[in-house]
Each structure stands twice: as C-alpha cells, then as structure tokens.
Specification:
alpha+beta, about 280 residues, globular, 13 strands, 5-stranded antiparallel β-sheet, 7 helices
Length: about 280
Amino acid sequence: MAPPSPSMAPPSGVALLISVTLVLLLVIPWVNGDAVGGWNVSNQREFDYFKLTLLWPGTACRRTRHCCPSNACCRGSNSPEEFTIHGLWPDYNDGTWPACCTRANFEEKEISTLVGALRKYWPSYSCGSASTCHGGKGSFWAHEKHGTCSSPVVGDEYNYFLTTLNVYFKYNVTRVLFDAGYVPSNTEKYPLGGVITAIQNAFHTTPEIACSNGAVEEIRLCLYKDFRPRECALQSTPRHGMNSRSSCPKYVSLPAYTPRGDGKVEMSVSSTYQSESM
C-alpha cells in the first residue's frame, strides 16, 4: 500500500505569521519576574522544558459515540488524517508540571486569525465545553491550563498558539512515520522499536509513546526552551491517566477509521480493539 501523503502545509497567511514569530522568539530574550503581557507566573517556578504532545485521530476517535459540530471525528471527508496537536506543555525535569499560571481569562477573539489552522491541526475529539483554570467552562482551546505557564518564553495567548503551530509543522511526525512505512492500517502491526527509531533518526531525540489497547494514541517530543529537541525527563509522571513508558506492547497498531458525514461515525477499527472500555 502506498503511504498516504499528509496535507501538512500551513495556510499561507498562517505560514507568514509563523515565520515572523519564530524569528522573534529566537532574538527576544526570555523574561522572568511576575508577568509578561499581564500573565502572572509568580506562583510557580519557571518550567524546565516543553513537551509537544500529538494525538493519533484513528485511536482517539474510537471513543466517539455521539457527534456534534465540535468533534473532529464527525467531519466526514474533512476529518483529520494525520497526528494533531494535543498541547505544547511546559514541564519540570522531575516529571511534574506547572498549570494555571495566569490570572487572565482565555479570549478566543485574540486568536481569531488562527482559528482555521487550529480547527485543522489542533481539533477537539469530544463534545461539550472544557473546564478552564478559573473553574468555568470554555472552548476546547481554553482548556490549555498547562500552556498558560509558557509565558516566560512565548509571551501572550496569541503567541502561545502560533508558536505551537510552528513547532508542530517543524517536527512533522506524521510525515516521518509515513515515509518509514508506518501508515494507517486496521490489519498491520508495527514494531514499537521501529516507530521510535524512525523518530529518533529524524529529530535526534527519543519520543514518549502512549498507547490505548495496543494502538498508538499519543506521541510526545521534548524540547528545550529554544525548541531544539532534547531527551525527556528521566522520571515521567502519567498525564491524563496515560503511562508514556509502559502502555505500549512490542508491536503496535496505527488504526484507520472511516468518518461519515451524516452526523455519525463509522469506525473501521480492527475487532481486536473494538471492545475498549470507556
């Protein structure tokens, strides 16, 4: 089977903004102290490194039982076909992480020019509103509690999302795996070691990989504050209930799914994995 060709080129307008922001990030020194653009980070110490966390839609969408406009699994032919962003999270070297470092509320209007790209590359795979740092409910992107602690490096809300898109395009995990022959399939299983090696060869860092019932669900890359690859912390605390080190077997699947555009989702998942508990 010929490897699919992921459509990973950012929209032209977003590409220009991404390029400009990356240059600014490289030449503007980090700031410390209490605030950047009104973002308060004094309650928790500054983080040590970033963790770019990506989701595989073929695995994430197996949990979909009901459709809604916000669920990317229900977009028919426009449903994701590549790894998508889960978050760019500040972490500590001891395996823990900061969260909710700002008093500011999330304002979606601040990222209005990025919404098209975010819907494509950073979609939600669920329905309903997400919890926010201040105890309320908001959009899927308002749930970025950990991202609020990145302000010493990226600054404000807009630059956080723009920077995350930039890093995602730079470290194109989907293309690396597809080029290595690890393509979506409901019958094939791939050696976990081979998947790890393909990413190591491309980015010179060892990824963390989390699985659900033998299927790849998350891939995580650790990055210095200047976004160069680095090894992840020796200690790794499970985030969102997933153990990044031991949840994958020696052979893993990269399941495909067949989205339907009539408000339902028809799963094309191997019967081995259809009994996943909720």
